[in-house]
From TrEMBL, chain A:
<protein>
    <recommendedName>
        <fullName>Mediator of RNA polymerase II transcription subunit 17</fullName>
    </recommendedName>
</protein>
<feature type="compositionally biased region" description="Polar residues">
    <location>
        <begin position="112"/>
        <end position="123"/>
    </location>
</feature>
<dbReference type="GO" id="GO:0003712">
    <property type="term" value="F:transcription coregulator activity"/>
</dbReference>
<comment type="similarity">
    <text>Belongs to the Mediator complex subunit 17 family.</text>
</comment>
<keyword id="KW-0010">Activator</keyword>
<feature type="region of interest" description="Disordered">
    <location>
        <begin position="19"/>
        <end position="47"/>
    </location>
</feature>
<feature type="region of interest" description="Disordered">
    <location>
        <begin position="102"/>
        <end position="123"/>
    </location>
</feature>
<dbReference type="Pfam" id="PF10156">
    <property type="entry name" value="Med17"/>
</dbReference>
<dbReference type="InterPro" id="IPR019313">
    <property type="entry name" value="Mediator_Med17"/>
</dbReference>
UniProtKB/TrEMBL annotation, chain B:
<protein>
    <recommendedName>
        <fullName>Mediator of RNA polymerase II transcription subunit 11</fullName>
    </recommendedName>
</protein>
<dbReference type="GO" id="GO:0016592">
    <property type="term" value="C:mediator complex"/>
</dbReference>
<comment type="function">
    <text>Component of the Mediator complex, a coactivator involved in the regulated transcription of nearly all RNA polymerase II-dependent genes. Mediator functions as a bridge to convey information from gene-specific regulatory proteins to the basal RNA polymerase II transcription machinery. Mediator is recruited to promoters by direct interactions with regulatory proteins and serves as a scaffold for the assembly of a functional pre-initiation complex with RNA polymerase II and the general transcription factors.</text>
</comment>
<keyword id="KW-0805">Transcription regulation</keyword>
<dbReference type="GO" id="GO:0006357">
    <property type="term" value="P:regulation of transcription by RNA polymerase II"/>
</dbReference>
<comment type="subunit">
    <text>Component of the Mediator complex.</text>
</comment>
<dbReference type="InterPro" id="IPR019404">
    <property type="entry name" value="Mediator_Med11"/>
</dbReference>
<comment type="similarity">
    <text>Belongs to the Mediator complex subunit 11 family.</text>
</comment>
<keyword id="KW-0539">Nucleus</keyword>
């Protein structure tokens, strides 16, 4: 009882739980936690407070509180909404409290707890104040410090970025301290431990360095071995190249399109020697076969997909073979009577291989040109049987020109076992064809060096291809000659006694276009070409039939202006009569025969019996 | 076959290549002995020295030889070598072929004469060619 009395006398009767004070004023007082907790304990102290109202001024406690905080506290204590808080209500309540105060004092056992809590609440309220003021102090100090720091930073900054510094520096400092007057530098902290640590580090990395050295030694060793190997290979390659290549060879740098490998190319085509053949440029690659350690010659084709590493490049044998078939009179069939020989030029020697490549490209071009020429000669029995075969048909024989492309020579060689009667002829024809192609080259060279324009040499000179025609012309001419001789014999020699037929050798004067040129090379070309004139010139035969008794004679000239045809001109002059002269040209032997028969019967035979007024006849 | 001079140059260039390779080999030995010495194998110091010497000797020799080759290259430009690169023409192959075929022809005709057989094909003209060719 006394205890409680003491409490009352103290007059410090806090009606509120101190926890409530921590509630933010803005928060609604009916926060569930707070309400539940305080429902019970609030009521008794409230009564106590009302009692103590008379003793102590509650304003001392709550007066400093702003009304915005106080009113929610009161409302919470009273458990009433703000609308019911009226003066009447408060008066009524205070009077009730006064009346109950005595009763309330009887409830002593309940009070000690409350009074104890009252103590703590009082302490809390005090400490709250002190904490608050302290906090405010701290905040002030912090603000001061931070603004000082800002000033320092700004001043530091003003040395390098004056404009940035100006935006944050205070006007006071700006006025009193010149800008950029503060500077700073970094000073390393000298730590004695560092040396020790570095030493440890060195020891640690020492092993690494040794390992690095060993590794680099191994790497160097490996690369040295590799380089030695490369040097050895290169040296071998160049030695072989220097052995194989002669100064007249045209070699140049190439690059393999697919692998990008650098290569040495060699030109073996005849392009620069007068050929117009563009189907094969005649370029080969000198490749170093590292496995066999020898040079390899591989034809190089300038197309996208070509690679020298293609394994399926096969260099077979390409050559022209001429076969002569002779007609068997009895059976109306042809048998093989002659075949050109085949030289086996197989060799692993690079020089021989280059030679072989040259031969191959030459034979290919020969065939190409032969086909071009043959296309115009179909009316003279020259037929292109297929891509690689040409057949020349003559009355008694056939000449077959064939380009053979085989991988293995032996099969072809075996066929030519026993020599045949026309083998030599076949060889001669083949050689002549080759010589004629060389003549074509020379003519091309002459044209190129004299006209200075290489642009117009494509194709349009197919009439210049003289390969088959000179040979075929000679053969046909020979046949014409035999026929003509036969006609002469039948029509003149057999009829007129002691008449003679003589073939007159005409030495043709050399072509007059060999005008001296300034260039000795062109002179040489002219001379070279001229040496083939006998072969190339169109065949002409002159015959003279003399009639000894009468002193008159026939002159017959057989010409083949396009090599294959025959034009026969017949001249007859009567020595006794100047008016009686004939000069006629025929293209058919039959007509010649008729004409001769006519002259003989009309003039020569008749003249012996009677005089006759001749009629000049011209064809 | 290239002339002696060209082959000499090729050999000399190979020698330079080899020198440079040997130099690299010496370098690897230098690194090796150095690492051994660092491991505590002090006896190898002499070898280390020798290898370093070898390295420099090789370098020197390669340099001298290369300079010499360059000098020779300069000297030969205009005599053996053309100062510009030209597109070399593959001339003379026609002559080559002509000579070859004429030889063949001579052989065939020789055979013909030896056999004394008369060939029906008139090849008299070719003999003229033979004279001229």
């Amino acid at each position: 009882m006394g205890k409680s009395q003491f409490d009352f006398e103290k007059g410090v009767n806090l009606a509120l739980d101190p926890n409530l004070l921590s509630l933010p004023s803005k928060k609604s007082p009916s926060s569930p936690n707070a309400a539940d907790q305080q429902k019970e304990p609030i009521v008794p102290p409230a009564t106590a407070q009302e009692i103590n109202e008379l003793v102590s001024n509650p304003y001392e406690i709550y007066g400093k509180m702003p009304l915005a905080q106080l009113v929610p506290l009161i409302l919470q204590q009273k458990q009433i909404p703000f609308s019911e808080l009226s003066q009447d209500y408060i008066l009524k309540e205070t009077s009730e409290k006064v009346m109950d105060s005595n009763d309330a004092m009887d409830n002593e056992p309940q009070l000690p707890d409350n009074s104890k809590s009252n103590f703590s609440t009082m302490d809390a309220s005090e400490s709250y104040e002190t904490i608050r003021s302290k906090m405010i102090d701290h905040i002030n100090v912090a603000m001061n410090e931070s603004s000082l720091a800002l000033e320092t930073v700004s001043l530091l900054l003003s040395g390098v970025r004056e404009n940035n510094a100006k935006s944050s520096i205070s006007p006071y400092l700006k006025r009193n301290v010149p800008m950029g007057s503060l500077n700073s530098d970094r000073i390393p902290i000298n730590n004695s431990n560092n040396v020790k640590k570095t030493n440890e580090k060195i020891k640690f990395s020492f092993g690494w360095k040794l390992k690095c050295l060993d590794d680099s030694k191994l790497m160097l060793k490996k690369n040295v071995d590799k380089l030695f190997e490369i040097v050895r290979r290169e040296n071998k390659y160049w030695q072989m190249i220097s052995q194989v290549i002669v100064n007249t060879d045209v070699i140049f740098k190439l690059r393999d399109k697919l692998s990008g490998e650098r290569l040495i190319g060699i030109k073996y085509g005849f392009e620069d020697s007068g050929s117009n053949y563009h189907l094969d440029r005649g370029i080969a690659v000198l490749k170093n076969n590292t496995e066999l350690n020898q040079l390899e010659l591989i034809p190089y084709y300038n197309n996208k997909n070509f690679s020298i590493h293609d394994s399926n490049i096969r260099i077979g044998y390409t050559f022209i073979r001429i076969r002569i078939f002779t007609k068997i009179e009895s059976e109306d069939d042809f048998i093989l009577s002659g075949e050109s020989s085949i030289t086996n030029n197989d060799s692993t020697n690079i020089r021989d291989q280059i030679k072989k490549f040259k031969d191959i490209i030459f034979e290919k071009e020969l065939m190409y040109q032969l086909k071009k020429e043959s296309s115009q000669l179909i009316s003279y029995g020259v037929k292109i049987e297929n891509e690689n075969k040409i057949m020349i048909e003559l009355p008694n024989e056939k000449i077959e020109i064939e380009l053979l492309q085989v991988d293995d020579l032996s099969t072809v060689m075996n066929e030519q076992d026993n020599p045949k009667i026309n083998d030599k002829r076949a060889n001669l024809i083949l050689i002549t064809l080759r010589l004629l192609l060389v003549v074509i080259f020379k003519k091309n060279l002459r044209r190129r060096s004299t006209t200075n324009s290489i642009s117009n040499h494509n194709g349009s000179y197919s009439e210049d291809i003289l390969l088959i025609r000179p040979i075929l012309g000679k053969l046909r001419h020979q046949n014409y000659k035999i026929l003509l001789k036969k006609i002469i014999k039948q029509n003149i020699l057999d009829i007129i006694e002691s008449s003679q037929c003589q073939e007159i050798k005409i030495t043709r004067k050399p072509n007059n276009d060999t005008t001296r040129t300034v260039d000795k090379h062109i002179d040489k070309l002219n001379k070279d070409i001229a040496s083939f004139d006998n072969l190339i010139n169109t065949p002409v035969s002159h015959f003279e039939v003399s009639l000894p008794d009468r002193k008159d004679s026939f002159k017959l000239v057989l010409e083949s202006p396009n090599y294959c045809n025959a034009i026969i001109s017949v001249k007859y002059k009567d020595p006794l009569n100047d008016n009686r002269a004939f000069d006629a040209k025929f293209t058919e032997l039959k007509e010649v025969e008729e004409f001769l028969y006519f002259i003989i019967t009309e003039y020569i035979l008749k003249k012996e019996t009677e005089e006759h007024i001749p009629i000049k006849q011209e064809h | 076959m290239q002339p002696q001079y060209v082959r000499e140059r090729l050999d000399s260039l190979e020698c330079i290549d080899l020198k440079l390779c040997t130099m690299l080999k010496e370098a690897s030995q230098v690194v090796f002995t150095f690492s051994e010495i660092k491991k505590g194998n002090v006896d190898l110091k002499r070898q280390f020295e020798n290898h370093v010497k070898g390295f420099y000797n090789n370098l020197e020799e390669a340099t001298i030889r290369l300079r010499n080759e360059i000098k020779l290259l300069d000297e030969n430009t205009g005599t053996r070598l053309l100062p510009i690169s030209v597109n070399k023409k593959n001339l003379g192959q026609d002559e080559e072929k002509l000579a070859e075929q004429v030889t063949l022809l001579a052989n065939v005709l020789q055979d013909v004469k030896n056999e004394a057989s008369t060939e029906p094909l008139m090849k008299d003209e070719d003999e003229d060619v033979l004279m001229d060719g």
